């Protein structure tokens, strides 16, 4: 569904920017396409959390995450997937 919505939004932006000069239109379209990934990369990232002062994890949570990672690494690697499955 997201692919279809993305295609629809692409056609709508092409239609909206069709009257703009070519040298400006493609830059605006590129800028619109760059904004969502940049926002997604910034929100809730470790840097963003540290800037907001939200860096205090409990020791229990950190130990739980470390144990989970160690179990995933120690698991036998199956053919065709392993940890990524």
Automatic annotation (TrEMBL):
> Mind listing the GO molecular function terms for this protein?
transmembrane transporter activity
Q: Where are the transmembrane segments?
A: 20-43
Gene3D superfamilies xref list: MFS general substrate transporter like domains (1.20.1250.20)
One GO cellular component this record assigns the protein to is: membrane
Record carries keyword Transmembrane helix: yes
Which keywords appear in this protein's UniProt record, sorted alphabetically?
Answer: Membrane, Transmembrane, Transmembrane helix
Q: Where in the cell is it found?
A: Membrane
- What InterPro entries does the entry give? MFS_sugar_transport-like, MFS_trans_sf
Keyword Transmembrane helix listed: yes
Q: Name one Pfam family in it.
A: Sugar_tr
Question: Which protein, by its recorded name, is this?
Answer: Major facilitator superfamily (MFS) profile domain-containing protein
Q: Which source organism?
A: Oryza meyeriana var. granulata
């Amino acid at each position: 569904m997201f692919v279809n919505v993305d295609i629809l939004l692409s056609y709508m932006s092409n239609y909206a920017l069709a009257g703009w000069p070519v040298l400006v239109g493609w830059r605006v379209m590129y800028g619109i396409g760059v904004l969502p990934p940049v926002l997604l990369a910034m929100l809730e990232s470790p840097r963003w959390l540290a800037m907001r002062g939200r860096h205090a994890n409990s020791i229990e949570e950190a130990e739980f995450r470390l144990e989970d990672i160690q179990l995933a690494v120690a698991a036998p690697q199956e053919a065709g997937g392993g940890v990524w499955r």
